[in-house]
Every structure is written in structure tokens, then in C-alpha cells.
Amino acid sequence: MPLQAVEPKRLYRQIAEQLRSLIGQGEFTVGSRLPAERDLAKQLGVSRPSVREALIALEVDGWVEVRTGSGVYVLNRSKRTKLKPLTTPEWGPLELIRARKLVEGEIAGMAALQAKRKDIVAMRSALDMMIDEAGRGVLPLEGDRAFHTAIVEACGNAVLTETVQGFWDSRRGPLFMRLGGHFENLKSWHSAIAEHEAILEAIKAHDSSAARTAMHAHMDKSHARFSASWRRAKNGS
After folding, report:
1. What predicted TM-score, i.e. pTM, was given to this entire model?
2. Are 111 and 151 in contact (CB under 8 A)?
């Protein structure tokens, strides 16, 4: 059964369902390696990031195992033969980052114009928390959430605050957590901390354009980190 092109707007869930169906029909046998990400993307007519999200969704549901530096392998699902809907309904992580770039870029620009001293102090405190967490060998997730929350709270808009917190809290979903397990490490977080420093400096200077640009750069680099090759992820790049 040949692969069929999918509509880009359907993104990772349609891709995952199609691949899962092929696995269930025996097109990809237990223990076999799936085609390379780039080949799947070409056959399906979608982007590689969308394929990556689909593969992670399948891994979360136990259909495949991602072995960084080697490939994606089909697991034995003989005890669970009935095809059920995928249990990962959340937003695709890479789509989420693109949405955050659009929304949080404008929020950073607004915060640079409206931030008061207490807001700057809150941002600095959150960034120091990130530095402390990383220094203790802990992924600085709590400090990261506090930093982005402090920025949006400087805007004084409850809807924006809840939106940003909703964006960030989606990181707790199984899809994003599994993707992070492959691509996030203390080295990548040290890079992210430096990007946060640039955002804070622009907001402190009340430079709206620079704050927006710094937030855009941070999100672009975050997207690039999650879009790196599996081999680079294994090597900690």
C-alpha cells in the first residue's frame, strides 16, 4: 500500500495515523526501521518537522522506538492489536514554538514599553532561577516558565497572561516532553539562558524593537534545536 500525500493543515496527527495504519497492516514489520525522516516527508508531501512530531507521537503511544543516531524502529504491538485513536491530542511542539514566536514577540515588545521596576526585578529573579537550576544540573523549566510569565505580566493583560501560561504549560504534555528528552540537555539550555539574557536587556532598555527581535531569535533557535538531526541530538549538539 503506497503512502498518500496529506494536507499540510492536518499536520502530525494525520501523518501518525497513516503510519500507524501501515504498521498495523504489516507494511512496516516489527523490528524493521522506518524510512528516513526526509524520505517520509517527501513521500507524504509535508515538512520534516511535521514528520518528526508524528514519529514522536507514535513513540509516546508505543508503536515505535526512536534510537538517536540509528533510526526509528517498529515495536511489537501484538498484545494490543486493536487500533485506537492516538492518545496524544496536544499541539505539535514545533507548531507551538512558531505560534509562541508570533505572540510572545509582540508581548516582549509591549513589555519593553510598559515594564516597571518590579517587573524587571521579577524577570531577573526568574532568570537567576534558571541559572541556578542549570548550575545544579537540573533542566531550568520552572525558571523558564517564571521568566516568560514575568514578561507577559508586565503587559497588564489577563488574557495574554493566560495565553502565554497555556502555551508554556503545553510543554508538560507527553509529546513535548518526549521530544525534549531527545533534544534538550544542559548544553542547549545554557544557550537558551543566554537568549533570555538578551531579551531581558532589551526590555530593561525599554527598546521595543530589540525586545521583539530578541524574542523572535530565541524562538527561532528553539525551533532549530528541536529540528536538529537525530545524530546531532545524540552528540549533544
Report:
1. 0.78
2. yes
Distance of CA 114 to the CA centre of its chain: 29
List, in order, residues 6 or more apart from 54 with CB less than 8 Å away: 12, 13, 15, 16, 19
Opening angle at CA 33, ends 18 and 29, nearest 5: 65
Which pLDDT score, from 0 to 100, does residue 83 have? 46
Q: Looking at 91-185, list the stretches that DSSP marks H as alpha helix, in order from N- to C-terminal side.
A: 93-114, 117-135, 141-153, 158-169, 174-183
64 and 169 in a single domain? The answer is: no
Helices 93-114 and 174-183: crossing angle, nearest 10°?
Answer: 90
Q: Other C-beta atoms within 10 Å of 21: how many?
A: 12
Same domain, 132 and 175: yes
Nearest to 17 by CA among 66, 57, 62: 57
**Best CA proximity match to 178, nearest among 84, 83, 53:** 53
Residues spanned by the domain of 165 = 93-234
Distance, CA of 38 to CA of 202 (rounded, Å): 38
Q: What value does the mean pLDDT take over residues 55-64? A: 89
Grid coordinates representing 52 are 518528526
CA separation for the pair 27, 113 (Å, rounded): 57
Q: Which residues contact 156 (CB under 8 A, 6 or more apart)?
A: 114
Answer whether residue 39 is part of any domain: yes
| Whether residue 16 is found in the same domain as residue 110 | no
- Whether the per-residue pLDDT at 86 is higher than 80: the answer is no
The answer to whether residue 82 sits within a structural domain is no
Residue 51 lies in a domain: yes
The DSSP letter of residue 92 is P
